[in-house]
Amino acid sequence: MILASTIQKLVQHLVSTNIHLGHKRSQQHPKMIPYIYKQKDNFQIIDLGQTYWYLRKSAFFLYKSSREDKSILFVGTKKHIAPHIKKIAAECNSFSITKRWLGGLLTNWETIKKNTFTLREENNFFSKKKKSQKIRQKKRIFNYFEGIQTMFKLPDVVIIIGQRKEMNAVRECQKLKISTLTILDTDCNPDLTDFFVPANDDSIKSVLYILDKFSKAIKKGQQFLEKQKLEKQKLEKQKLEKQKFEPRKFEPRKYKVKLELIDSIDALKGPYQDNNR
């Protein structure tokens, strides 16, 4: 009875977020059929059992990735969801692209990295004219790269919200073999991602519910990693202290005489002879 009531509460909570609402049948991707529960009023209803199972699987993947110190990039440029993505990414010490995906952002990373360096660059050492140019350049770059200005290397994992809108990001990740995790609506293709959650990717409530689970998993992994680092530092400190106060053991030096070099008694006595005699 307790288990049944818990499942019922979970289902009610998931339904309240509109996580189960898909697109019209005419927009359905054929490869999403296994994740659709039924059709209602010409709209697809996503199977909540599968949504919950894949959500847990994806959250564990993110936990494992963050405890291995892997960098994570959130990508979502839908105007009504972008501010929430930006906030959640910042809360879990991750990166984000929420304005517009510029072509070559990952595949042409060395050039993009120079632009992110411009954002961090100090203007104090430039002339007035050069300084004003740098400020204008920063403002232009900031719009696109605000969420990645401290990203010094390619991300290890990319979380995509809105696959159809972010196809450029999907293709670049595939080309570079970067792991992707996607919220898949009924009009998306599950073959274009490594991990996914079948769910409504248009509803703010739905996306926030999923991203909250992702954020918690990432934070949990980061806490585990931090704990490991502290324990390692503690052990190293104890080892150094032990070496500091432990008395050193001195052993007499052992000299090995090669008998084959001694040709005669004179050769043995030679270094000790008194020249005054």
UniProtKB/TrEMBL annotation:
Cellular component terms per the entry's GO annotation: chloroplast; mitochondrial small ribosomal subunit
Question: Which GO biological process categories is it annotated with?
Answer: translation
* Annotated SUPFAM superfamilies: Ribosomal protein S2
- Pfam families documented for this protein: Ribosomal_S2 (PF00318)
Q: Which key words tag this protein in UniProt?
A: Chloroplast, Plastid, Ribonucleoprotein, Ribosomal protein
Q: Where in the cell is it found?
A: Plastid, Chloroplast
**Under the GO molecular function aspect, what terms does this record hold?**
structural constituent of ribosome
Q: Which family does it belong to?
A: Belongs to the universal ribosomal protein uS2 family.
Q: Which HAMAP family match?
A: Ribosomal_uS2_B
Q: What is this protein called?
A: Small ribosomal subunit protein uS2c
Q: Which gene is transcribed and translated to give this protein?
A: rps2
